[in-house]
Amino acid sequence: MPTPPDTIVRAGSVAGWAYALEEFGCRTGSYVAELSERGRAFVVHRNAKGFSRVDYGLHGKAVTSFEPGMPHLTNGPSAEVALGFVHRGDEVGDVAFLRFLEGELGIYLPWEETEAELPTAAFSHAAVG
After folding, report:
1. Alpha carbon of 60 to those of 34, 35, 108: distances in Å?
2. pTM for the full model?
3. pLDDT tens-digit readout, 91-122
4. Cα–Cα distance between 116 and 12 in angstroms, integer?
5. DSSP state of 33
6. Rounded to a whole number, what is the largest CA-CA distance in the chain?
7. DSSP 63-107
8. What Cα–Cα distance (Å) separates residue 126 from each residue in 1, 20, 45, 101?
9. How far apart are alpha carbons 102 and 9 in whole angstroms?
10. Can you tell me the distance from the alpha carbon of 95 to that of 106, in angstroms, rounded to the nearest whole number?
11. How many CA atoms lie within 13 A of 49 on its CB side?
12. What does the radius of gyration of the chain's CA atoms come to, in whole angstroms?
């Protein structure tokens, strides 16, 4: 493992979807294109100040990156155009997006999974892209 690693993720799968939990940092969004090589990938982050960021990749390309409820911070097509997601402001942005994923795509990560022992990977530096 690199010393010190830039970030560490724990990974698993539920109902045919793979996931990774990043315990600190905000590096996995840099890898959304690579993570989506065989389909699609969503990266959802929340920082200590409560801001959230969603990155979306499809078939090896980064499609969009946005802060739910803050369209002026979008890089790429809007969340509504790219995914059909509209943040109505009645929930915290990342929670609203996770509910959207559950309802629209059937992606659901049980809380127990976040506490489980999982395979771990270290990233030595963020991808350039």
Report:
1. 6, 7, 23
2. 0.79
3. 888 889 989 999 998 888 888 887 888 888 77
4. 9
5. H
6. 42
7. EEEEETTEEEEEESS-HHHHH-----SSS-HHHHHHHHHHHHH--
8. 15, 15, 15, 26
9. 22
10. 15
11. 2
12. 14
